[in-house]
Design goal:
With 75 residues, the chain is mainly α. It has a domain of 47 residues. Helix content is 60%, strand content 0%. The relative contact order is 0.06. It comes from Turneriella parva (strain ATCC BAA-1111 / DSM 21527 / NCTC 11395 / H) (Leptospira parva). This is Ribbon-helix-helix protein CopG domain-containing protein.
Length: 75
């Protein structure tokens, strides 16, 4: 196992500690499980989906594509 350090917003940190305690696990274990869950989702998405950006995004991205791509200042 490799030791690492991360920074979290205070609200996220407190919520994560509560969730971990409610589930009887340490904050470190909660973080490990969370990272593992995200990696599993990423792997399942496949290389084409990851490249195309359909792995994760806002449901409204297609209706605001110009804003997403070019930013508001160009509209």
């Amino acid at each position: 196992m490799i030791r690492t350090q991360i920074s979290l917003e205070s609200e996220v940190y407190e919520e994560a500690k509560i969730h971990a305690a409610e589930n009887g696990i340490s904050l470190a274990e909660f973080c490990r499980q969370s990272v593992t869950e995200q990696l599993v989702k990423y792997r399942k998405a496949g290389p084409i989906a990851r490249f195309a950006g359909i792995y994760d995004g806002d449901p409204n991205d297609s209706s605001t594509v110009d804003e997403v791509v070019y930013g508001k200042r160009f509209l």
